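Annex B. Sample input.
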Amino acid sequence: MRRFRLGIGMLLILLLIPWTSAMVHAETNTIQLMLEGQTLKPDVPPKLVQGRTMVPIRIVAEELGAEVGWDNQQRKVSIKSNAVDLTMHIGQKKAIVNGKEVAMDVPPMLDKGRTLVPLRFVGESLGTTIGWEQDTRTVIVNQTYPVEANGKSLSGQRVFKIGNEYYFPLKEISPFLGAVFQSAEMDQVDRLIYGDLNLNIEERGRTQLHLRRLDSGWVVPQSVIENLFQAKVVQADRLFRIEKLSRLQSVQEVNGKIVIKSTAPMPLQHFLMEAPHRLVIDLPNTIISEELKETAFFNGGTGIIRKASTVSVSGITSEPMPLEEPLSSEELSTDTPVETQPLETSTEKMVDIELPEMTPSLESQSPRLSHLEQEELIKEIRFSQFSLEPQTVRIVVELSRRVKYDLNPGAEGWEVALHSLPKKEGFLIMLDPGHGGKDPGAKGVSSNREKDLTLTISTLLKEELRQYKGLQVIETRSDDSYPTLQDRVLMANEIQADLFLSIHANAFKPETRGTETYYHTAQSEQFAKIVHKHLLEATRFPDRGAKKAGYYVIKNTTMPSALIEIGFLTHAEENRQMLEPAFQKRVAQALGKAIHEYYTSYQ
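Annex B, continued. Sample output.
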């Protein structure tokens, strides 16, 4: 008997499972309706039809202040507001909006005596904002709220009221808050960068910043805008104004530094320009403070900073200069950038532009560069209100010649290290002694090191090239230092060298020997063949050819480039000869002749 009862019990459970499953499924597919921040519960709930949300029209329209009419004979529903007259028929995909026929994706329908209409179509016809939150399966409806950020109208951007909070489009307002929104690319994720915050939005945006993801994108609540980003949000009637403006307080040159003080952290846009040479720093969402405008060096919309005392910059002395008439705002405008750097986000309130020692390998190797010692690097610093929409202050550092620079946050702000690049005065040859410093290169059979041989050959070659007029020579290293491969390429490309020659020696099996030369690009082939011809005459080692290869320094330099392997340090005889000063001198002379031949024949 117990077995029979158990069987009946199991049968009842099995019969109930489909119903329970259906109830769970129905609960999961329930669509919530939120209007002006309040959740509505109509007697006929919203439903999805062909991907469109259908809602009972009367409860929505009346909440939005519109009148709803129903003609049972024509099966017609009408909606009227101050600006819209809308009529639709049950089962028909055509609507009449202010006298014009408009097509709908899904027609109105009847459900349990209630008229259901496509919400997005009707809502947007009435001028409302519609959003969809997949996480909560909620349709969000509210009136349209225009938005301005730092005085700029963000037309087309939607504001949503969810509960008691207003939510704003995060991506679009981030630049005005001093933040960077990085959109997901490929398998990466959306990120928000603000000061020390580098947030994976998908993982932590909801919990840490109370973000929500709607069909329009990520939205951020007003409370976070005000508390985290320290911005002011003001509502006048329906218009929201978001303001976070930094005020430039001072620009000074102090002991070789340019110090820029402002009231709030803001991202910096910075790039180099030419004709004349200058570094441009843009401070978005920034205005010039009234206190700064009242100073003596601000006149006619432009501030000019002159050096108040003698400042020594990398051996260059700048004498005090009188204050001249400031330039106009038009003169502050610049041409197309030569090199644009990615957007940086500051976490401090001060920018320090620091002028360090010049790199010896670039500044002290050629006598042709000696005139730089009498020419100051920074000629002038000026600033103005470059743009009003959005508000942007532009600072221009005018330079006497080309530089490269590094921008890094310092203890009290940003520090930009300027590295002067040599001024080209002829056909510029970049010699690259391979390896160096912590990288000894190949080891010879006499325990000699490749890095020593390459530096010796390079030094001799540089002296050899001095006899040829019109040639300017610089090395990637002139001592036992270690520039990375990237450093060597960057140095050659930034200085706009005309030729690049990388010097190496080989290593393999004890019996392997010979001289070889490599190139990568078509423009480098002729140069490599000339070098190889002269090098073979000097080494008198077996000919291993001039051939194409993908070595980093010859692949990534933009000028004709070659890489030589003089001989094999692992071959006893070749290693012995490469250690002889006479052999080294002969190789340097041959390479000098090769470079001169290329210069006179192909330039």
